[in-house]
Amino acid sequence: MTDAATAAGLDPATLADVLRLAGSTGFDRIQEQIRRTGGCTDPIRLQGSTVTRDAGTGHVLHSYSTADEPGGFLRVACGNRRASRCPSCAWTYAGDTYHLIRAGLIGDPTKGTPETIRDHPRVFATLTAPSFGPVHNRPGKRSCRCGTRHAEDAPELGTPLDPDEYDYAGAVLWNNHASELWRYFTIYLRREIARGAGLTQKAARELSRVSFGKVAEYQKRGAVHFHAVIRFDGPDGPLSPPPAWATLRLLDDSIRAAAARVAVDVPAVDDQPARRLQWGTQLDVQPIGAFGNGEEITEQAVASYVAKYATKAAETTGTVDRRIGNKEALILLDVPDHPARLIAACLDLHALYPDRKLRDWAHMLGFRGHFSSKSRSYSTTLGALRQVRADYRAAQQRAALGLPDPDDAEGTTLTLAHWSYAGHGHTPGESWLAANVRRDLQHQREQARDIRAELEVTDTMGEW
Questions:
Q1: C-alpha 34 chain-centroid distance
Q2: Burial of residue 29, with CB atoms counted within 10 A of its CB: 0-12 exposed, 13-18 middle, 19 or more buried
Q3: CA distances from 211 to 228, 258, 302 (A)
């Protein structure tokens, strides 16, 4: 068994379980369930049944029970957005985020935004944290302050030049209050727009709206920063054009003025001094080009960038994606020195600021906000996108079973369902099968991307 496992690249326990599954009567159905979840790494197991009846006659049109499934349960995707937890579900989440952001940039009538949205002033803004001490970096063509020209993947990038002098407490407290800084920023932004337009805040709200979609990203130093698409709309949101005074210049100036005004005060406690938390000076605001005619920032680039970081979190800095209860765990988990110090600072500060829940969010380096969010009128919602996908799959299933459309007045049906949670996860053999499914899907996506790229090149050459 050991020699066979080694030849297959599997440990003996996994190989034994793969052989058990392959010899079971429900192997094909197990594979089908795993494929339907996209190779989810930690699927939810459900037990239950559904019965579809004709609402008029009560005749049973279709019935399903997990009692007939291998193991007596049904696997459904976990839906986790973190790529470190489930690459398959994170890929779906990133795709939904891409379409959400894209719909607010180019318009999509099916998602509630007209194509005229492209004519609205909009920018891609990046708001960063202030400095908590000098760190190793790559300042253009110059050497780092340490005298070394670091490679792009150098492990010391983002780490302090002098860890003993770095303000770790200030860094995690800033992360912890970052969502409040953003909330105040959106408030001050509307005020600055009214001031710049020479209007009262009430008059400005009656004539225009400001919509946004944002995502949080961790810098190498462990500080959170926000990327946001910010757009001017008319009084009816994306359905109406903004007034003439709602210019790109006014939006740019208002963003910079609002960011400069924001401040959150943290009181002094014991040995911790009072702090005034503010945005850093590295504020970047760039207009978004509609068709990529020489603009540095295009709609496609923005949507892709936001979607990319919607599935990442603090683990990109070297920490872990699960809660850490004590400092001893940092050694067991082999967390690098810089993120370990940030986590330790969270654990130390928890008793001083219990309402901030720093211990619960230590693995996130103090940050406790949403990684992606949007204003109500920016575009569609993630929930709506998921519902469209669920409806599409339900329609496919009904067609395969020969069931009538529930919206058809002549074929009204009634479905009764009962489901209960029965656990989660895979056996070792199922995990191996899921990994193969993910690998195959990734290969198919790469092939499809290469084909699209070739077709684009062919089209371009045809135009010549």
A1: 23
A2: middle
A3: 10, 15, 15
